[in-house]
Write a structure and sequence with these properties.
The chain contains 3 helices and 5 strands. The protein is an alpha+beta fold and about 160 residues long. The model has no long low-confidence stretch (mean pLDDT about 90). Pfam families: RadC.
């Protein structure tokens, strides 16, 4: 068998998965309805950019629907942002989440979901079914309130 030199070996990237949670399980907020999700997102995640740029975030939940963390998936411009479904599940798998709640804001103040919002939600929900990660809701937030696709029967 021929010996190969080290330089002839292919180089590949090292992949590391990590999730750090410094919040005790008993101190994590529990989400039981869309209002709970809105409160968690409004208090810490959207304060400064709600009316400025569109952001897509994911609440990661454990089996008891306690919030493991909030993942900021993307930040776009005034009229939109790109949300890659693969990245939703990268975060969910890293955190060992049992469920997710999708959320994005509309800087325009319009609470109505677009056709693109509905299609993306459907696509992510189907992916979650394959991975046994429930997509519980998709919220659209504005400075004056929120719209829940689950509450409206659109999930």
């Amino acid at each position: 068998m021929e010996k190969t030199s080290k330089s002839a070996l292919p180089r590949v990237a090292e992949v590391k998965l990590s999730y750090r949670n410094r919040v005790k399980p008993s101190e994590r907020p529990q989400v039981t309805c869309s209002a709970d999700s809105y409160k968690v997102l409004q208090e810490g995640c959207y304060k400064s950019k709600l009316e400025f740029v569109e952001q897509f975030k994911v609440l990661l939940l454990n089996r008891a629907n306690r919030v493991l963390g909030v993942y900021e998936l993307s930040t776009g411009g005034v009229a939109g942002t790109v949300a890659d479904p693969k990245l939703v599940f990268v975060a969910a798998l890293k955190a060992c989440a049992s469920a997710v709640i999708l959320a994005h804001n509309h800087p325009s103040g319009n609470l109505k979901p677009s056709q693109a919002d509905l299609q993306l939600t459907k696509k992510i929900k189907a992916g979650g079914e394959l991975l046994d990660i429930a997509v519980l809701d998709h919220l659209i937030l504005t400075s004056e309130g929120y719209y829940s696709l689950a509450d409206e029967g659109l999930l």
